[in-house]
Amino acid sequence: MRVEDLTLFLKVVEFGSFSAVAQLLDLPRANISRRINELEKELGTRLFIRTTRQLSLTSQGAQYYSQVNTIIQDLELANSALTEQTKSLTGKVKIGVLLGSEESLNIAISAFMDKHPTVCIESRFTNNSFADMFQYGLDFAMHIGKLHDSSFIGRHLGTFSRMVVASPDYLARHGRPTSPEQLLGQRILAFRWPDASLESHWSIGGRDWPIQPNLISNHYGQMIQAAVNGNGIGYLPYVMAYPFLKDNRLEILFNGLETDVEDVWLLYPSREGITATAKALMEHIIATLPDFLPEKY
Which residues form the HTH lysR-type domain (predicted)? Predict the structure, then answer.
Protein backbone atom coordinates (compact mmCIF):
# COMPACT_ATOMS: atom_id res chain seq x y z
CA MET A 1 0.00 0.00 0.00
CA ARG A 2 1.50 3.29 -1.15
CA VAL A 3 1.09 6.71 0.42
CA GLU A 4 0.33 8.07 -3.07
CA ASP A 5 -2.71 5.78 -3.36
CA LEU A 6 -4.01 6.85 0.04
CA THR A 7 -3.60 10.49 -0.97
CA LEU A 8 -5.45 9.71 -4.21
CA PHE A 9 -8.30 8.14 -2.20
CA LEU A 10 -8.59 11.33 -0.12
CA LYS A 11 -8.74 13.47 -3.25
CA VAL A 12 -11.49 11.32 -4.77
CA VAL A 13 -13.55 11.78 -1.61
CA GLU A 14 -12.94 15.52 -1.50
CA PHE A 15 -13.68 16.14 -5.22
CA GLY A 16 -16.54 13.64 -5.46
CA SER A 17 -15.64 11.88 -8.70
CA PHE A 18 -12.91 10.03 -10.56
CA SER A 19 -13.23 12.43 -13.49
CA ALA A 20 -12.61 15.53 -11.38
CA VAL A 21 -9.48 14.04 -9.83
CA ALA A 22 -8.24 12.82 -13.22
CA GLN A 23 -8.59 16.34 -14.58
CA LEU A 24 -6.88 17.81 -11.51
CA LEU A 25 -3.89 15.47 -11.73
CA ASP A 26 -3.86 15.34 -15.54
CA LEU A 27 -4.21 11.54 -15.54
CA PRO A 28 -6.53 9.20 -17.43
CA ARG A 29 -9.78 8.50 -15.59
CA ALA A 30 -9.12 4.78 -16.00
CA ASN A 31 -5.87 5.19 -14.08
CA ILE A 32 -7.71 6.70 -11.10
CA SER A 33 -10.40 3.99 -11.18
CA ARG A 34 -7.83 1.19 -11.42
CA ARG A 35 -5.80 2.45 -8.44
CA ILE A 36 -8.90 2.81 -6.25
CA ASN A 37 -9.99 -0.71 -7.24
CA GLU A 38 -6.57 -2.07 -6.30
CA LEU A 39 -6.75 -0.26 -2.94
CA GLU A 40 -10.18 -1.77 -2.24
CA LYS A 41 -8.89 -5.21 -3.22
CA GLU A 42 -5.91 -4.87 -0.89
CA LEU A 43 -8.18 -3.77 1.98
CA GLY A 44 -10.74 -6.48 1.24
CA THR A 45 -13.69 -4.09 1.35
CA ARG A 46 -15.51 -1.58 -0.83
CA LEU A 47 -14.78 2.06 -0.10
CA PHE A 48 -17.23 3.61 -2.58
CA ILE A 49 -20.76 3.03 -3.79
CA ARG A 50 -20.66 3.65 -7.56
CA THR A 51 -23.67 4.57 -9.70
CA THR A 52 -23.83 6.19 -13.13
CA ARG A 53 -24.60 9.53 -11.53
CA GLN A 54 -23.03 9.49 -8.10
CA LEU A 55 -20.00 8.34 -6.14
CA SER A 56 -20.44 8.02 -2.38
CA LEU A 57 -18.58 6.43 0.51
CA THR A 58 -19.64 3.19 2.15
CA SER A 59 -19.79 3.21 5.96
CA GLN A 60 -16.40 1.46 6.01
CA GLY A 61 -15.12 3.99 3.49
CA ALA A 62 -16.24 6.92 5.63
CA GLN A 63 -14.48 5.51 8.68
CA TYR A 64 -11.35 4.80 6.64
CA TYR A 65 -11.37 8.32 5.20
CA SER A 66 -11.46 9.88 8.67
CA GLN A 67 -8.54 7.81 9.90
CA VAL A 68 -6.41 8.12 6.74
CA ASN A 69 -7.00 11.88 6.56
CA THR A 70 -5.52 12.28 10.05
CA ILE A 71 -2.55 10.05 9.20
CA ILE A 72 -1.75 11.90 5.96
CA GLN A 73 -1.97 15.30 7.68
CA ASP A 74 0.42 14.12 10.41
CA LEU A 75 2.77 12.74 7.77
CA GLU A 76 2.76 16.02 5.84
CA LEU A 77 3.47 17.96 9.04
CA ALA A 78 6.36 15.63 9.90
CA ASN A 79 7.81 15.96 6.39
CA SER A 80 7.45 19.73 6.49
CA ALA A 81 9.12 19.98 9.91
CA LEU A 82 12.04 17.84 8.76
CA THR A 83 12.46 19.85 5.57
CA GLU A 84 12.44 23.15 7.46
CA GLN A 85 15.09 21.87 9.87
CA THR A 86 17.45 21.27 6.96
CA LYS A 87 16.96 24.75 5.48
CA SER A 88 19.17 27.69 6.33
CA LEU A 89 16.92 30.14 8.16
CA THR A 90 17.16 33.79 7.13
CA GLY A 91 15.15 37.01 7.26
CA LYS A 92 13.61 39.15 9.99
CA VAL A 93 11.21 38.03 12.72
CA LYS A 94 9.21 40.63 14.68
CA ILE A 95 7.95 39.50 18.07
CA GLY A 96 5.87 41.08 20.83
CA VAL A 97 7.39 40.75 24.30
CA LEU A 98 5.79 41.20 27.71
CA LEU A 99 7.54 43.58 30.09
CA GLY A 100 9.29 41.54 32.76
CA SER A 101 9.81 38.51 30.52
CA GLU A 102 12.81 39.93 28.69
CA GLU A 103 15.43 38.54 31.08
CA SER A 104 14.36 34.94 30.49
CA LEU A 105 13.44 35.51 26.84
CA ASN A 106 16.83 37.03 25.99
CA ILE A 107 18.58 33.79 26.97
CA ALA A 108 16.37 31.76 24.62
CA ILE A 109 16.76 34.30 21.79
CA SER A 110 20.55 34.43 22.18
CA ALA A 111 20.78 30.65 21.76
CA PHE A 112 18.65 30.84 18.61
CA MET A 113 20.78 33.66 17.15
CA ASP A 114 23.97 31.71 17.79
CA LYS A 115 22.51 28.81 15.79
CA HIS A 116 21.09 31.02 13.01
CA PRO A 117 23.41 34.04 12.67
CA THR A 118 21.75 35.38 9.50
CA VAL A 119 18.37 35.85 11.22
CA CYS A 120 17.39 39.34 12.44
CA ILE A 121 15.05 39.46 15.45
CA GLU A 122 13.16 42.65 16.30
CA SER A 123 11.33 42.70 19.62
CA ARG A 124 8.70 45.18 20.71
CA PHE A 125 7.23 45.48 24.18
CA THR A 126 3.51 44.92 23.94
CA ASN A 127 0.58 44.86 26.31
CA ASN A 128 -2.24 44.18 23.85
CA SER A 129 -0.97 41.46 21.56
CA PHE A 130 -4.25 41.26 19.63
CA ALA A 131 -4.10 44.89 18.47
CA ASP A 132 -0.30 45.16 18.25
CA MET A 133 -0.04 42.08 16.02
CA PHE A 134 -1.43 44.03 13.06
CA GLN A 135 -0.45 47.55 14.08
CA TYR A 136 3.25 46.68 14.24
CA GLY A 137 3.29 43.73 11.82
CA LEU A 138 4.38 41.20 14.45
CA ASP A 139 4.96 37.58 13.44
CA PHE A 140 3.90 36.42 16.91
CA ALA A 141 3.49 37.91 20.37
CA MET A 142 3.37 36.90 24.01
CA HIS A 143 -0.01 37.21 25.69
CA ILE A 144 -1.03 36.71 29.30
CA GLY A 145 -4.55 35.83 30.41
CA LYS A 146 -7.61 34.68 28.47
CA LEU A 147 -7.72 34.41 24.69
CA HIS A 148 -10.29 37.02 23.69
CA ASP A 149 -10.04 36.65 19.90
CA SER A 150 -10.67 33.24 18.34
CA SER A 151 -9.16 34.37 15.01
CA PHE A 152 -5.68 34.01 16.55
CA ILE A 153 -3.87 30.75 17.16
CA GLY A 154 -2.44 30.35 20.66
CA ARG A 155 0.47 28.12 21.70
CA HIS A 156 0.56 27.58 25.46
CA LEU A 157 3.83 28.71 27.04
CA GLY A 158 3.16 28.22 30.74
CA THR A 159 0.97 28.98 33.73
CA PHE A 160 2.08 31.54 36.30
CA SER A 161 0.74 32.72 39.64
CA ARG A 162 -0.24 36.30 40.29
CA MET A 163 1.29 37.97 43.33
CA VAL A 164 0.18 40.82 45.58
CA VAL A 165 3.20 43.15 45.58
CA ALA A 166 4.26 46.58 46.80
CA SER A 167 7.48 48.54 47.08
CA PRO A 168 9.39 48.83 50.40
CA ASP A 169 8.87 52.60 50.18
CA TYR A 170 5.09 52.24 49.91
CA LEU A 171 4.96 49.78 52.83
CA ALA A 172 7.07 52.10 54.96
CA ARG A 173 4.70 55.01 54.31
CA HIS A 174 1.33 53.21 54.41
CA GLY A 175 1.98 50.15 56.59
CA ARG A 176 2.23 46.53 55.59
CA PRO A 177 -1.16 44.74 55.41
CA THR A 178 -0.93 41.32 57.04
CA SER A 179 -4.22 39.92 55.71
CA PRO A 180 -6.38 40.54 52.60
CA GLU A 181 -9.01 42.28 54.78
CA GLN A 182 -6.54 45.09 55.29
CA LEU A 183 -6.45 45.92 51.58
CA LEU A 184 -9.40 48.24 52.18
CA GLY A 185 -8.00 51.69 52.71
CA GLN A 186 -4.79 50.91 50.82
CA ARG A 187 -3.94 52.43 47.45
CA ILE A 188 -4.77 49.82 44.81
CA LEU A 189 -3.45 49.39 41.26
CA ALA A 190 -6.05 47.64 39.07
CA PHE A 191 -5.76 46.17 35.59
CA ARG A 192 -8.20 46.65 32.72
CA TRP A 193 -8.25 43.61 30.43
CA PRO A 194 -8.11 43.83 26.61
CA ASP A 195 -11.88 43.12 26.47
CA ALA A 196 -12.35 46.33 28.56
CA SER A 197 -13.43 44.49 31.73
CA LEU A 198 -11.97 45.88 34.96
CA GLU A 199 -10.63 44.00 37.94
CA SER A 200 -13.17 44.35 40.74
CA HIS A 201 -11.70 41.79 43.13
CA TRP A 202 -8.54 39.82 43.84
CA SER A 203 -8.59 36.10 44.56
CA ILE A 204 -6.41 35.45 47.62
CA GLY A 205 -6.46 32.46 49.92
CA GLY A 206 -9.45 30.88 48.19
CA ARG A 207 -11.67 33.99 48.53
CA ASP A 208 -12.50 36.94 46.31
CA TRP A 209 -11.65 40.23 47.99
CA PRO A 210 -13.26 43.43 46.60
CA ILE A 211 -10.88 46.22 45.68
CA GLN A 212 -11.29 49.97 45.26
CA PRO A 213 -8.79 51.06 42.57
CA ASN A 214 -6.80 54.29 42.82
CA LEU A 215 -4.96 53.72 39.56
CA ILE A 216 -6.36 51.79 36.57
CA SER A 217 -4.29 50.82 33.56
CA ASN A 218 -4.50 48.41 30.65
CA HIS A 219 -0.70 48.26 30.50
CA TYR A 220 1.20 45.94 32.83
CA GLY A 221 4.35 47.96 32.24
CA GLN A 222 2.74 51.03 33.75
CA MET A 223 1.36 49.01 36.66
CA ILE A 224 4.74 47.50 37.47
CA GLN A 225 6.41 50.90 37.30
CA ALA A 226 3.69 52.41 39.49
CA ALA A 227 4.21 49.66 42.07
CA VAL A 228 8.00 50.13 41.98
CA ASN A 229 7.51 53.91 42.38
CA GLY A 230 5.47 53.36 45.54
CA ASN A 231 2.11 54.41 44.07
CA GLY A 232 0.18 51.45 45.45
CA ILE A 233 -0.32 47.69 45.78
CA GLY A 234 -0.56 45.60 42.61
CA TYR A 235 -1.75 42.10 41.74
CA LEU A 236 0.79 41.14 39.08
CA PRO A 237 1.87 37.98 37.23
CA TYR A 238 4.93 36.57 38.97
CA VAL A 239 6.83 36.11 35.71
CA MET A 240 6.60 39.87 35.09
CA ALA A 241 7.26 40.99 38.67
CA TYR A 242 10.18 38.58 39.15
CA PRO A 243 13.05 40.92 38.08
CA PHE A 244 11.81 43.59 40.53
CA LEU A 245 11.32 41.07 43.34
CA LYS A 246 14.82 39.72 42.77
CA ASP A 247 16.48 43.10 43.31
CA ASN A 248 14.14 43.97 46.22
CA ARG A 249 12.35 46.82 44.46
CA LEU A 250 9.09 44.94 45.15
CA GLU A 251 8.01 42.67 47.99
CA ILE A 252 5.36 39.91 48.05
CA LEU A 253 2.43 40.33 50.44
CA PHE A 254 0.42 37.44 51.91
CA ASN A 255 3.09 34.95 50.87
CA GLY A 256 1.78 31.39 51.16
CA LEU A 257 -1.84 32.24 50.38
CA GLU A 258 -3.21 30.83 47.14
CA THR A 259 -3.71 33.36 44.32
CA ASP A 260 -5.01 33.35 40.75
CA VAL A 261 -2.99 31.76 37.98
CA GLU A 262 -2.71 33.13 34.48
CA ASP A 263 -1.89 31.34 31.23
CA VAL A 264 0.86 32.73 29.03
CA TRP A 265 0.60 32.20 25.27
CA LEU A 266 2.43 32.82 22.05
CA LEU A 267 -0.14 34.16 19.56
CA TYR A 268 0.04 34.35 15.79
CA PRO A 269 -2.58 35.17 13.16
CA SER A 270 -2.61 31.99 11.03
CA ARG A 271 -0.65 28.84 10.25
CA GLU A 272 -0.44 29.78 6.57
CA GLY A 273 0.89 33.29 7.19
CA ILE A 274 3.83 32.49 9.48
CA THR A 275 7.26 32.19 7.85
CA ALA A 276 9.54 29.20 8.34
CA THR A 277 11.98 31.40 10.29
CA ALA A 278 9.29 32.81 12.58
CA LYS A 279 7.89 29.33 13.16
CA ALA A 280 11.35 27.98 14.02
CA LEU A 281 11.93 30.79 16.54
CA MET A 282 8.51 30.25 18.09
CA GLU A 283 9.10 26.50 18.47
CA HIS A 284 12.54 27.22 19.97
CA ILE A 285 11.04 29.60 22.55
CA ILE A 286 8.29 27.11 23.48
CA ALA A 287 10.85 24.33 23.88
CA THR A 288 13.48 26.27 25.83
CA LEU A 289 11.90 29.21 27.68
CA PRO A 290 10.51 27.16 30.61
CA ASP A 291 14.10 26.17 31.46
CA PHE A 292 15.01 29.81 32.09
CA LEU A 293 11.90 30.99 33.91
CA PRO A 294 12.03 31.80 37.64
CA GLU A 295 11.64 28.76 39.85
CA LYS A 296 8.52 30.02 41.58
CA TYR A 297 5.80 30.27 38.96
Answer: 1-58
